[in-house]
Amino acid sequence: MDMSDIRGLQRTLCIFSGIPPYFAGGFRKSEPQQTKKRCTMECKLIEAAAFEELKAIVNRIQIRTTHLAMKTMPRKPGGWLTQEEVCSMLRVSKRVLQYYRRQRKIPYSMIGNKVYFRESDIQRILDANLVKSRA
Prior knowledge:
Helices cover 50% and strands 8% of the residues. It has helices spanning 3-17, 48-72, 83-90, 94-102, 119-128, and strands spanning 80-82, 109-111, 114-118. A hairpin with a 2-residue loop joins strand 2 and strand 3. The protein is elongated, with a radius of gyration of 30 Å.
């Protein structure tokens, strides 16, 4: 196998993997001499098991980042919140939230055994109980 065969193989591999051929050392004949840049590409071979493990790690990272992005994304105002979401917003336990419901401090809706709160109601209660600074 001579150098022309290797360059042809590099171009074929790059086209197959979606990498432009000029990164693999392949150049078009019509390009001016000044614009040609030589780039070397290093190829690494890994075992199939290691590749599958790497894919699994990348998938787990993608799932975690998507989950974190969803948690940090601002909610649409006017939506409904579950008991768990309200507890985390108010930093209270479910029992305390149940006490507030029983005392009619927080309005809620109940469908079956599931309790929902309007986000606007929770925000209104927080604003009404805001303790302002003296400054």
